[in-house]
Amino acid sequence: MSRFVLLGLNSHGELQSFDLLATNHDDATQEAIRCARQTGVQIVEISAADRNRLGIIDFRLPHASRFRRRRFDLSLFVYELLTLLRAGLALTEALETLDERRRQSHSGAADEQGHHVLPELVRLMQQGKSFSTALALNPEHFSALLVAMTAASEQTGGMIEALERYLHYRTQVSVVRQKLISASLYPALLMLTGTAVALFLVWFLAPRFAHVYEGMPAAGLPLLSRWLLTVGLIINEHTAATLSGLSVILMCASALLTRPAVRERALVLLGRIEWLGEKLKLLQLARFYRSLAMLLQGGVALLPSLEMTRELLALPLQDRLTRAMNGISQGRKISDSLEQEGLVTTVARRLLRAGETNGQVAGMLEQAAMFHEREIAQWVERFARLVEPLLMLVMGLGIGTIVVLLYLPVFDLAGNLQ
Question: Are residues 36 and 138 in the same domain?
Fold first, then answer.
């Protein structure tokens, strides 16, 4: 008998797990169906729970399921829901339509991570819960910003406008992200290609040159050439172990980078570099201004909006935001409080003061975000133009050094013969 785990949703929208004993996965499925009927839960997933019964540690990456399942596409969901609402459908009817389309299409099968989200939203709405509450019960798929926007729109009746603003926000943030990814793609590919060529030279050519130089005295070989030949022989003789070690290092690095604490620490270390830290802070502030503007335009109060956008900032900036919020709660202006804590740029400060005068704080925050996003995009473009030739130079020098060290004993031998 093997142990399986049933993961299901109860009537309150909470995830519950149940232990099952079965001989195989089919028997576990039947047992899970009986258990779900008795407990009144909706089946989400059935998985084996005894994969580690031999004491083997499971080193699966936190996001390894991305290679097996497609993630729930929030932008597509908001766009499709917005289209149906514009067509005149009621909110519950629109959700039912999306769920029915998902059931009929192959893309809505169980190979999608959020395949249970739409049925759960429909069920909660049919029970009389508000749309924002239904979204809040699925925090792994819906952000706090969207929940706050929908909650505010339920008070004002502007659901369509709220979804439009959120979709526009996602589009603008995606544009900035795509520019950063595009700028870093070519240098990353260049480094990957150069590293692969260098490893090939050390793994394939260095051992062959080592066999050619076997008859030469060790004293006749340059020191760096001897080191290179020795490393090449070791890698060639232990190819499988070397590849396994590199794979483990890459997997561990990928797993570490997915951890928020590690990413936060990396941002802090990069921020200590003066010229790079300023741009990283500007990027965070631009995203902070845009998110805050979206929430204020959606009718969310200032202090709750600041609280929800806190996570967009690094830890040192979060502490500053807390102090600024304390000042705002005591009656100070938002521009003065943020300026005192260093959370506004020169442009943002002037725009905020203008917005406080004419009552357009949200619009001025969005203008500040747009200004700084353009500034960041121009800096990234100039930085990429500078880094690409430097990387090519470094890679060329590295590969050239390996080739020279391999042939250097030949040149010395030819000089001795003359």
Answer: no
